Amino acid sequence: MSISTFNAFRSRNYRLYFAGQSVSLIGTWMQKTAVSWVVYSLTHSKLMLGVTLFAAMFPSFLFSFIGGVTADRYNRHKLLLVTQIISMLQAVLLTLLVFFRHYTVWDIIALSVLLGIINAFDVPARQSLVYEMVNDKAHLPNALALNSSMVNLSRLIGPAIAGISIEAFGDVVCFGLNALSFGAVIFSLLLMKLPRYEAKPHTKNILGELKEGLSYIKQAPEIAFLLGMLGMVSLLVLPFITLIPVYAKDIFHGTAATFGWIDSAIGLGAFAGALFLASLKPSANLRKILAINTFVLGTGLVLFSHATHYPLALVFATFGAFGMMSQVTIVNTIIQTTVAPDMRGRVISFYAMIFFGMQPLGGLIIGYVSQYFGVQNTVLTEGIIALLVGAVHLRFLNSRKLKRYIRPLPGEQAVGIKAEAK
C-alpha cells in the first residue's frame, strides 16, 4: 500500500464525506444484521429472508429512474441532505417499534420498503456528488475504490458489533445506534464547501430525460454489457448473502454472534478487495481485473457452499467476497469516468436500478429454490454461474468487433499521451 492509495483524501470535501459516511455505514450494517436475525428468529423461514431483501431493495428498482433524473435536475448536495434526514427518521421509527415490542415481521418489512424508496433517490445523488467532491478528477477512481473500502470496512465492523450487541443487550441497541449514526453524515454534509449550484433549464419532461438516458446506454456497448453482466450477477449470484443466517443457525448450529462473524468475514474480504482496487496504478487494466475477480467470486462460493468446518468456511467466504467487490466498484468506476457529466445521474440510476432491483428478485428465487434444492447446493450453483459470467466477460474483452467501442479510462489516456510524447 502506498501514499497514492489515499490520493482522494487531498480533497477536503471528500475527507468530510468519508468520515461521516464511515460512522453512518457501521450503524447501517448493524441494522441490516439485526433485521435479518429478527426476521429469521420470528419466522424460521428462508423464503421470508428473501422477502425482507426484496422489500428493502425492490423499491429502489422501481424509483431509481426518477431518482437519477432528480439527481441530474436539482442540487445533489441538498437532495442528499434530505435523503439522510428521512433515513434517520426511518431508523428512529424502527427503534421505537422494536423497543416497545409492538411489531410483527410485516411492520419491519414495511419500514424496509420505505428505506428502499429513500435509497432510490439517495444513491444517484450520492454517487454523482462524489465526482464534485474530488478536486483532481484523476483521483476519482481512487475515491470510488476508497468508497468501497469504507462500505466494506463498515460491513466488517457492523455485523460483528451487531452479533455481540444482540446477545448482550438485545436487538433494539442495533437499531438505536443506527439512528444516532446518521448525525455524523448529516454534520459532514453541512460542513462541505461545494461550488455554487447553478440551475440549468430543462426542455424535456422526466419521461423524456429517462428515454434520453436509455438511448445513451444503447449507444455505448461497453456500458450496456457491464450493466447486463452486473444484472446477471446481482440476480443469480450476490443473493447468496440472504442464506447466511441459515448457515449460521442450521449448518454451523450457532447464534447471532456466529451470523455476525460470517457476515464480517464477507466484509473483510470485500474490504481487502476494495483496498486492492484503491492501490492500483491509474494505468491498471480494470476491465481485465473485473473478469478475473468474477472467477475469484465464483471459486469462493463453490468452496464455501459445502464447507462444514466453520473456520475454513470463514476463509472461503472471505476469498469469495474479495472477488465480489470488483462487481460493484469497477463497474461504477467505468461509468463515472466515461459517461458524459450531464448523463451521469441517469446512467448511475440504471446502475442502481439493476443492482438494487435484481438482488431482491434473486433473493426471492434463491430463497424459494433453496427450500427444495438445499441451501448448500443452491450456493454451489451460484458459484458456478459466477464462473460462467467471468468466462463470458473474457470473451467480450477479446472481441475485436467490440474493442473499438471501449473508451480508455483517465489513467489509460495519460499513459497513451506519455507514450506519444516519447
Question: Would you write up a description of this structure?
Answer:
This protein is mainly alpha-helical and 422 residues long. The protein has a single domain, classed as MFS general substrate transporter like domains (Growth Hormone, Chain: A). The chain is built from 16 helices and no strands. It has helices at 12-43, 46-73, 76-100, 105-133, 140-168, 172-191, 206-218, 221-236, 244-251, 256-278, 286-305, 310-338, 344-373, 375-397, 400-403, 410-421. Helix 11 runs antiparallel to helix 14 and helix 13 runs antiparallel to helix 14 (375-397).
End-to-end gap? 29 Å
Largest sheet: none
Contiguous runs where pLDDT drops below 50 for at least 5 residues: 412-422
CATH topology: Growth Hormone, Chain: A
What do we call the CATH homologous superfamily?
MFS general substrate transporter like domains
**Corresponding CATH architecture:** Up-down Bundle
Query: What portion of residues is helical?
Result: over 70%
CATH class: Mainly Alpha
Query: Got a strand count?
Result: 0
**What's the number of structural domains?**
1
How many helical elements? 16
Mean pLDDT level: 82
Gyration radius over CA = 21 Å
Q: What best-fitting shape do the alpha-carbon axes yield?
A: globular
Share of residues in strands:
under 5%
The helix-strand sequence is: HHHHHHHHHHHHHHHH
Counting helices, strands and paired strands, the structural category is mainly alpha
